[in-house]
Design goal:
The protein has 614 residues and is an alpha/beta fold. The protein has 22 helices and 21 strands. A hairpin with a 2-residue loop joins strand 4 and strand 5.
């Protein structure tokens, strides 16, 4: 059997698997899967795609990402034909406890990405391709199947822009132009020339396939793609949604609909004679090795106790200091490295720094790709701008990601830039992400410790980075931990506990000094770790003082006060709070803190008001 004929036969078998698995599941997206069968079967089974089936974690395996994640019936069928799973397992599709979930997750051992929220897979591919070309310097290629409807997402074009900038000729996108989406036609329908012009305007090499079901045309496109240098490649293929089932082909209204058992029996003969013993062979990748990078030395920065330093500046210093100890650290920034101070790392380690420009969605997806190949990505921007990438951030929890998010310019304390630049929702956002730690250092020393802890912690971490210069609070010997806090003012006479974090710790200390003049003694807690929270210290304060006052430079909704109230829900105590409750405006930091009633004088006044209740 010649190669073309074999792919034709494999395509029939794959179509059968798509139909039978979705009928058994009573749900799924068979029509979207059927359109890309020849595109993917030709890739996997003609020697183009190289992969060690016996070792899914092999460092030089080619990568295959289904950015159109709803096409999982095709995805799983490919691996069944390749011998990765038993075809009988396809009947567990979408069933509880099956790794064959409705959209790809890492529960499936061959998955390179958790996808399904459209528009993100290409960015993950950018991260994998960056790693291969610039970091590990490996010859593997990354292939990303994209749906035509996905190109309506702006994140696709953020990724396309960056891929071209970094000349990722090891990245091949396959655009399945089947014309239809859930409610009708796509914007461009089958206008391949406009797709071509758009990708070329972003600096991509484009290859048109007029018939995406013609295996010779598809194979020729992959062959051409292999010879392109210094540009990412997109294969733009015209396909038919529902291909193989006559009453589905190119028909609106069948998205996410499956055949009933009796309809399946009628449809199977339309596929032609099926060889159920057929298997597809996947070529082996080149045997390579990557030099193991040994951990180097690390020394804490010796900050003077009288210094006044912005925590964001300490972030840059800490990253540069940690780079030798953690050779897998990679830093990304969204065109703000001068403000976030990622520039300190970039200047010292330019080969491990990647400018992502003003494209936060792609930056997060790229970090997901880097995390998948065991890098430790630190990614920084203004905290306010992470909100525009929240979909990518929430998806990271399904990647088992190891991303360190650093949000600078938090709260009203940033001052004159005004509310558009103020991170006031970021704690709420990251609190909602499962298994994501949140650290909020209050000075340069604790920032350095936060960066160190983030690098040591397996999993996502968010560090909230303060803009203004603030006094050093801690000695260079001070230790911190995820889930810990610090009591910075304490005595046996404490009447009330004030809990702050970041800038409000400094305001609470000022309030402490004011109240001492009135013979009122308070306890001040620096809540270094917001998630997980330091229950033991808070509970100690509850037992030893009359109440807790939480002060935060963040909106009340989803912020620190809510975190504490949730943690102490079963503890009998009184919790009061001061937070940002007015629409901020431009002004000096001290003016804004005062305007929002979270400054020292307002803390002191609130303490007095609370104590008068007792």
């Amino acid at each position: 059997m010649d190669n073309i004929k074999k792919i034709e036969e494999i395509s029939k078998l794959i179509r059968y698997y798509i139909l039978s698995s979705t009928t058994e599941a009573t749900s799924g997206h068979p029509t979207s899967s059927l359109s890309a069968v020849e595109l993917m079967a030709t890739l996997m089974f003609t020697g183009i795609f190289r992969y060690k089936m016996e070792d899914p974690d092999y460092l030089n395996n080619d990568r295959l990402i289904f950015s159109k994640g709803h096409a999982t019936p095709l995805y799983y069928a490919l691996w069944a034909v390749a011998g990765g799973i038993n075809p009988s397992e396809l009947q567990s599709f979408r069933k509880f406890n099956s790794p064959l979930e409705g959209h790809p997750t890492l529960n499936f051992k061959f998955a390179d990405a958790a996808t399904g929220s459209l528009g993100q897979g290409l960015g993950v591919g950018v991260g994998l391709a960056l790693n291969a070309k610039y970091i590990d310097k490996l010859p593997y290629k990354t292939y990303v199947l994209i749906g035509d409807g996905e190109t309506e997402e702006g994140s696709i074009w953020e990724s396309a822009n960056i891929a071209s900038h970094y000349k990722l000729d090891n990245l091949v996108a396959v655009l399945d132009v089947n014309r239809l989406e859930e409610v009708g036609t796509t914007v461009l329908e089958w206008d391949l020339q406009t797709y071509k012009a758009r990708f070329e305007s972003f600096g991509w090499h484009t290859i048109l396939v007029e018939d995406g079901h013609n295996i010779e045309q598809v194979a020729a496109a992959y062959s051409d793609a292999a010879n392109v240098q210094d540009k990412p490649v997109v294969i733009i293929a015209k396909t038919i949604k529902g291909k193989g089932v006559k009453h589905w082909e190119n028909q609106i209204g069948w998205h996410a609909k499956v055949l009933k058992p009796d309809e399946l029996e009628k449809a199977i003969p339309e596929l032609g004679k099926i060889d159920f013993n057929l298997t597809g062979e996947v070529a082996h990748p080149e045997e390579v090795s990557v030099e193991t990078k040994q951990e180097g030395s690390f020394n804490w920065t010796n900050y003077s106790e009288n210094a006044v330093i912005a925590p964001r500046q300490a972030y840059g210093n800490a990253l540069a200091a940690l780079a030798e100890k953690y050779p897998n650290i990679v830093v990304l920034d969204a065109a703000l490295k001068n403000s976030t101070h990622a520039k300190t790392f970039a200047e010292k380690y330019p080969d491990r720094y990647f400018e992502m420009f003003i494209a936060e969605q792609n930056m997060v997806s790229t970090a997901q790709g880097l995390s998948r190949v065991k890098k430790i990505p630190f990614i920084s921007t203004f905290a306010a701008f992470f909100t525009r990438a929240f979909d990518q951030i929430r998806m990271s929890q399904y990647f088992d990601s190891n991303i360190k998010f650093v949000g600078s310019h938090v709260g009203t304390s940033i001052g004159m830039d005004g509310p558009s630049q103020m991170g006031l929702e970021d704690i709420a956002m990251f609190r909602s992400v499962q298994n994501c730690a949140i650290l909020y250092p209050s000075d340069a020393v604790s920032m350095e410790r936060a960066v160190y802890l983030a690098a040591e912690t397996q999993g996502n971490v968010y560090i909230r980075s303060t803009r203004p210069e603030v006094p050093i609070l801690y000695s260079s010997e001070e230790t911190f931990k995820v889930g810990g806090s610090k009591i910075v003012r304490e005595s046996v006479y404490d009447s009330l506990t004030v809990v702050g974090a970041g800038i409000t710790v400094h305001e609470a200390i000022k309030a402490y000094d004011m109240l001492r003049q009135k013979n009122i003694v308070i306890r001040v807690v620096d809540l270094f770790s917001i998630k997980p929270i330091d229950y033991a210290t808070l509970n100690k304060c509850i037992r030893e003082t009359k109440a807790i006052l939480v002060v935060e430079d963040h909106y009340a909704e989803g912020g620190i006060s809510e975190a504490i109230r949730t943690e102490l829900a079963n503890v009998k105590t009184k919790i009061f709070s001061l937070s940002v409750n007015k629409t901020p405006r431009s002004g000096k930091p001290e003016e804004l803190l005062d305007y929002e009633e979270i400054s020292a004088k307002h803390i002191a006044a609130k303490v007095t008001e609370i104590l008068n209740m007792f």
